[in-house]
Each structure stands twice: as structure tokens, then as C-alpha cells.
Amino acid sequence: MDSIDDSKPVVPHGFNIDTIMRYASRAAYSPLASYLIVNALSRRLKTATAKDKLSAAAALWAAANVVVPGVGKLAGRLFYGGKKAVQWQSEIVVVTGGSNGVGLELVKRLLKAGARVAILDVHAFPIDDARYNDQWKYYSCDITNLEQVKEVAGQIRADLGDATMLVNNAGIVVGKLLLDMSDREVDKVVDVNLTSQFHLIRQFLPAMLKAKRGHIVSIGSIVSFVGTPQASTYCATKGAVRILHESLRREVASRYEANSIQFTIAFPGVINTGLFGGLDLGSFLFPTLRPDSIARKVFAALGSGKGEEIFLPTMANLLPIINTLPLGVQSTICDVLGGNNNAMSSFSGHTKY
Ligand SMILES: NC(=O)c1ccc[n+]([C@@H]2O[C@H](COP(=O)([O-])OP(=O)(O)OC[C@H]3O[C@@H](n4cnc5c(N)ncnc54)[C@H](O)[C@@H]3O)[C@@H](O)[C@H]2O)c1
Predict the structure, then answer these.
(1) Which of 57, 80, 103 is the endpoint of a domain?
(2) So which residues are the catalytic ones?
(3) What is this entry's stated membrane topology (predicted)?
(4) What is the pTM of this model?
(5) Are residues 92 and 67 in the same domain?
(6) Ligand 1 within 6 A of 233 CB?
(7) I need a labelling partner for 69 at 20 to 30 A (CA). Which of 109, 129, 232, 326 fits?
(8) 75 and 104 part of one domain
(9) Domain residues for 228?
(10) Is residue 30 in some structural domain?
């Protein structure tokens, strides 16, 4: 297995808003840098009292940046014994679409951590590393086929045991106008991206409810919030996945009173896996991500034992807010500033299914 390099920033370097915010927040939370910057600014003030006040505020902020993380670490040690919430050796993780892209990057991290992993994919799992051979099993499975899913779920239970984590990751896109798509293409996009999630959840959730532990992950997209021309079927499935995730999270907590079962959903922008080949949202506001960008965030959420909503890159955090604005404003932001109407014109990703 390739060595895993998690030292790179989650959102790639370059002149983009994420890089600027990364350096700005590093400066703001560094006791020394924040003190020096604010003190330098205070010199521009006119009155001595104002200078003193700002200087005192800078010292207070710097002190807080030393004390607060220290107290946080101490509390973590005291309450959690410094250990991770999840013991990977006792986790059995089902990952759909684990043979490529985001799924593959996630599987690598799960194996390295010690989890046992079931990979469901229509393409063979590409990793051959003797160190991990006992930890994973590949199941050739078209997740749109309910009979196959049922059969494979039974095999996983027999081979590895009851799944404790399920990652609904596999997804496809057909980048065509709705009227240019064949009936089969429409069905296939809906079946892979959405219907399969119902099948898989219905197979693996019951054992999680019984054990009163588990974690279910869905990979949505920024288009879970913003519809895009030439990808209406894909966007519709990603919007539906968001609501499925939300309904299920509430259903499990309120009707089964199983708050211990966690739910994580990711809303990524474009990732350079080839799925959306040719697409460029403009590198400043929506820098293109790597598959490990999302995999690392999902892995961290699983490891923390706490469900999360992952928005990447940073501007994706604004999408739920944009949806609440008047239609005209939404259009201006998405179409004029974000180039949403023509984003798919250059699409050259996977199209044949
Ligand atoms: N690539 C992007 O720009 C992007 C952006 C936002 C969200 N996403 C989402 O992230 C997830 C992962 O995407 P990716 O870019 O890693 O894609 P990818 O094409 O690199 O990998 C997807 C995997 O799913 C598998 N798969 C496809 N159909 C299947 C089926 N019927 N049964 C079983 N496996 C099947 C493929 O064989 C492949 O291994 C998807 O849900 C996708 O919609 C991707």
C-alpha cells in the first residue's frame, strides 16, 4: 500500500480563499504572532490610552491562546484517558465504492488504523499489501442490485461479523442535459447514488440498533444544496441523500432512542478523481480537492466517534445560507459569481454506464 501522507493541507495550496484563511487563522491563534500583529497595529492609534488598551487586549488574547488549548488537552486526558473514542481493532467497516477515489483513500486509512474492512465495488480492490491482507475483504457487488446486496451482506456477516460502520460512498454522474439522457442512464444514476443507500442501510442498521453502537456515513456534494444544469439527476440524488441522512438521524434518535448511533455526511466540491473530469469551479473560491481531502475528514469523524457535517472547501459552508436568500440573490451568487450555469459545459468525466 502506498504510504499515506496526511501532512498536506486538506484543501490544496495555491492562491485560494482556503489558503488565505488557513494562514490568517494560524496567525490569529498563535500567541506570539497574534501579539506581535496587534501590537504593531496599536502603534497606528493616536491616543496613548487606546494604544494601551489594544496592547492589553493583545496580551490577553495571546494568554488565552496558551491557556485554552492546554486546558482542553488536560480535560481530554482526564475524561477520555488520552485515548481515541474508537478502538479501530473492534470496528468492521463496510465501504461502497472503495476501489477508487475517495473510497480507496478512506480504506487505506482504515486498514492502517487496524479496522477490518469490507469493500463493495464493481471494480477490483487495487491494494495488495501482505501487512493488511487479513483485514480486508473485497466483494464484487453492484450495489444497485438488491439481491446482490442482500447476498453480500450475509457473506460479510459470516466472514467478518456485524458491521459497526457503513460508508455509503459509491457514486456516478452522467453529465448530460436531462432530455439527452437515456432511460437507463437516469435509472442508473438514481440507483447507484440514492436507492442503493436504502438497501445498504436496511441491511446493516438493525445490528447497529441491537448493539446500540454504529456510525453511518453518506457522501453528498455541494450540489446537495445547489442544482446545476447538465447534472440534474446527479444533483437530485445528492439533495435526496442529504434529506435521507437527516431523516434517518432523527428517526434513529427519536424512534429507536439510539443516540449512540452516529451519522456523518460530507458535502465536497470538485475532487480530482476523474468522476467530474474537465470541471473547474474556479480555483479561488472553490479550489479542487484531492480524494484524501474528504477521506481524511471522514476518517477523523469516524475515529472521534461523533457524527459530523463536513463542508469542503470552506466556501461550501455558505451553501445552506445561500439557500435561504431570495431567488434573485441566489441566482446572482450561484450563476454570476460561481459560474454555476456553465460549470458542466467542460465536463469530460466518466459518462458510460
Ligand atoms: N469527484 C468529485 O468531484 C465529487 C464531488 C462531490 C462528491 N463526490 C462524491 O464522492 C463519492 C466518491 O466519488 P469519487 O470521486 O471517489 O468517485 P470514483 O469514480 O473515483 O469512485 C467511485 C467508486 O464507486 C464504484 N461504483 C460505481 N458504481 C458502482 C456500483 N453500481 N456498485 C458498486 N460500486 C460502484 C466505482 O467502481 C468506483 O470505485 C461519490 O458519492 C461522489 O458522488 C465526488
Answers:
(1) 80
(2) 234
(3) Multi-pass membrane protein
(4) 0.91
(5) no
(6) no
(7) 109
(8) no
(9) 88-346
(10) yes
